[in-house]
Predict the structure.
Amino acid sequence: MQFDIITNVAVFKKWVMFLLTNINSLIKTIGILDVIDILVVAYFLFRIYLMLKNTRAAVLVKGLLTLGAIMFISRWLNLHVISWVLEKSMTVLIVALPIVFQPELRRALEQIGRGRLFRKHGELDEDEMVNSITSAAIVMGRRKIGALIVIEREIGLEERIETGVAIDGLISDSLLLNIFEKDTPLHDGAVIIRGNRIAAASCLLPLTEMRNLSQELGTRHRAALGISEQSDAVILVVSEETGTISLARNGTLQRYLTADDVKEFLKASITRPKADFKQMLREKIRDLRGDKK
């Protein structure tokens, strides 16, 4: 019995050495391009997983994987009839896949065409954000629903967010309209937007100390000016009395804005400028040369 144990240990060691040798040989053949190739494929598979997650297609994929596992087991057990039936079924399913997944495939192609494949899942782009805020402001102005929307920029507003009710929801015109609807719990106070999400609602803001303001300006306008004096935030105000839309920034207030004005101001204030590589390269060269222009 002892001899059998020694033999088994020797066989196991030999098998481990063989495995380590093969792994070592495989690692030596892997180059930087192979690593990049694997990472790119893994990333695309992850993006496909995010697109299929919580959709009807996710259930279908689970069914296909189950059929594949059963087919593998039936081949391993030499169950020829079951293997034959499953192979024919898989052939039919492969032909039917483009039809079954037609909505998901169309959505994926649309995302690729709009450049959204590399965006974080569930993230709004800046144009959508501006359009949602503008649309909500125009509707609230027409209905004379008072609103105070603060868009955080470089200077953080965490202490102001803590005074309100946490929301942490993606920006949409419907959500903003529901928050500021009259006689709702979150109607009073300000909504603070951080990034592309509504961080909190019903937040308290400091009032401006300016004494030479028009008597037409109410508490919302004074609060908008107050927070704009203490930070670089952009604040959108909808008057409950007149329905006019105003925008405060850097201690100044622009009033009687139209939809186009609101979009223009918001895009100029919150849209991140796209980097011009050539311009950056020229500036770096000038810096290296010591040129000042």
